[in-house]
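TICKET: design request
STATUS: open
ATTACHED STRUCTURE:
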């Protein structure tokens, strides 16, 4: 990389008189850290990217098995409505690798009362866009369906300063029974407890619709639907993006290099080596980040350590198509919140995206909350047999064990993040899925924003 000499504005750098010769350190090479390093590189700012593990992408892990299945351990696609992941993909030349969930197999069931029900037609996430088709669906009792549609007549909340939980929001606007339908659709990506999940942090768009249109349903109906595909992915899986960014990084990039402590003027590695820096973008998850801040920033460390997590386990199952008596060309199913089973959802990966299983085979991901993986496996195999008629054992199984590793955005989350930021000097930024959004586009945006913020704090014209 040809690194331009940095031109410091008057007053900068802030912390170290030699800082203009020093790089910015990025801790962690998940999607947030890779995006931060990429942003610094685009600005000609020298950086060091330090990753504890032996690969890039963090939670994003796409693995090709010997028998040609493609297993995704976490994200399998990203939303296009938030443009940052797509933009990054284009910047690193991945236009031709982009794919979308298959429209011709877009069949999704809702499991309620032991029955696989068709999803209501014409939904935007969970919001019914017409009364008629929603009332014909069996996803709630007839009273529950009517009460949910009556949201259009519920006056908007007056006090908008106070945060509230997803559960409080649903019950207030759509009625208590609607929890059974909305929670699986809305809280899924957060694997969250709806009574704790912060509306302001997780779903500000619904609060905005409520305020602007007086109703989420009215607002959703008044806003035009995005044309074209809603999600994107890559032919060879989501790791394609992480690996493509990593391959284009020409700065100092080190794998197998865990950071032990972050200081105002650099970091200490677990081996004891110190690396001097003008600033740090810390993208390790909160439970790892908290101790690294403990020595130099005890107040911030305590606040970061207070951020809670949720657990989830995905069981990945491979079958031959012939093991199923029915057509398995469908995207999957969601389970009603009051169904009384541990399983939350199934994705039929082989039908949702091209290239995930060899011809004549079926690849499933079966999702659970915090559950022992062995128990999850037994329930997953049982449910696949019960609901889809699978005969015999799966060809193989794998786990994506994320117990204790999903950020829980609890009520008041945004205020808590503001307190963390205020407890750190502006050249030390925390960023990533623990703070401002778990989706890949949010992580990319968080990494790039944090990199820009450190550069701005240092008073450098990058
Ligand atoms: C089951 C599941 C399904 C998901 N599905 C989707 C989806 O479909 N779409 C979507 O958009 N999102 C999805 N997500 C969310 C998304 O995958 C994650 O939120 C995102 O990948 C997190 O990126 P990150 O960079 O913030 O953190 P991470 O990926 O956790 O990266 C942090 C990095 O920091 C490194 N690190 C930790 N400690 C240190 C240290 N001391 N020194 C140096 N490095 C360190 C780690 O090794 C890791 O590489 C899903 C998540 C899960 C669990």
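STATUS: resolved
RESOLUTION: sequence designed for all positions
ATTACHED SEQUENCE:
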């Amino acid at each position: 990389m040809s690194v331009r000499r940095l031109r410091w504005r008057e007053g900068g750098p802030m912390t170290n008189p030699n800082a203009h010769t020093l790089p910015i350190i990025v801790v962690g090479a998940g999607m947030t850290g890779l995006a931060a390093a990429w942003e610094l590189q685009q600005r000609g700012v020298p950086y060091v990217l330090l990753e504890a593990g032996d690969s890039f992408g963090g939670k994003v892990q796409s693995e090709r098995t010997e028998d040609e299945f493609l297993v995704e351990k976490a994200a399998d696609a990203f939303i296009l409505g938030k443009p940052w992941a797509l933009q990054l993909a284009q910047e690193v030349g991945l236009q031709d690798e982009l794919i979308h969930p298959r429209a011709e197999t877009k069949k999704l069931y809702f499991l309620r009362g032991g029955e696989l029900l068709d999803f209501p037609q014409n939904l935007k996430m969970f919001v019914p866009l017409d009364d008629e088709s929603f009332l014909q669906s069996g996803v709630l009792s007839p009273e529950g369906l009517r009460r949910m549609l009556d949201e259009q007549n519920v006056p908007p909340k007056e006090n908008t300063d106070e945060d509230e939980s997803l559960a409080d929001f649903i019950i207030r606007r759509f009625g208590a029974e609607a929890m059974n339908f909305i929670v699986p659709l809305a809280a899924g990506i957060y694997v969250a407890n709806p009574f704790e999940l912060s509306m302001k942090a997780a779903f500000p768009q619904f609060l905005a619709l409520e305020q602007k249109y007086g109703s989420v349903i009215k607002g959703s109906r008044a806003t035009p639907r995005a044309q074209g595909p809603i999600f994107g992915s890559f032919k060879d899986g989501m790791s394609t993006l992480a690996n493509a960014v990593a391959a284009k990084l020409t700065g100092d990039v080190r794998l197998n290099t865990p950071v032990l402590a972050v200081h105002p003027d650099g970091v200490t590695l677990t081996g004891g080596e110190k690396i001097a820096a003008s600033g740090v973008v810390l993208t390790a998850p909160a439970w790892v980040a908290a101790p690294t801040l403990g020595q130099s920033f005890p107040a911030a460390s305590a606040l970061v350590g207070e951020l809670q997590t949720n657990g989830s386990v995905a069981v990945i199952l491979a079958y031959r198509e012939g093991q199923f008596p029915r057509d398995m060309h469908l995207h999957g199913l969601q389970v009603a919140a009051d169904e009384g089973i541990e399983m939350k959802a199934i994705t039929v990966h082989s039908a949702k995206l091209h290239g995930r299983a060899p011809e004549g085979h079926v690849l499933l991901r079966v999702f659970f909350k915090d559950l022992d993986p062995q128990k999850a496996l037994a329930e997953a195999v049982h449910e696949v047999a019960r609901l889809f008629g699978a005969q015999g054992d799966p060809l193989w199984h794998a786990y994506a064990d994320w117990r204790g590793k999903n950020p829980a955005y609890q009520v008041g989350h945004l205020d808590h993040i503001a307190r963390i930021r205020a407890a750190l000097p502006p050249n030390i930024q925390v960023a990533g899925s623990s703070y401002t959004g778990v989706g890949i586009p949010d992580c990319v945006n968080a990494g790039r924003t944090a990199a820009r913020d450190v550069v701005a704090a240092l008073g450098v014209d990058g």
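CLOSING REMARK: DSSP finds 16 helices and 24 strands in the chain. The pocket of flavin-adenine dinucleotide is lined by residues 27-33, 50-53, 58-60, 74-78, 258-259, 283-285, 288, 292, 312, 314, 400, 402, 406, 432-433, 438-440, 443 (CB under 6 Å).
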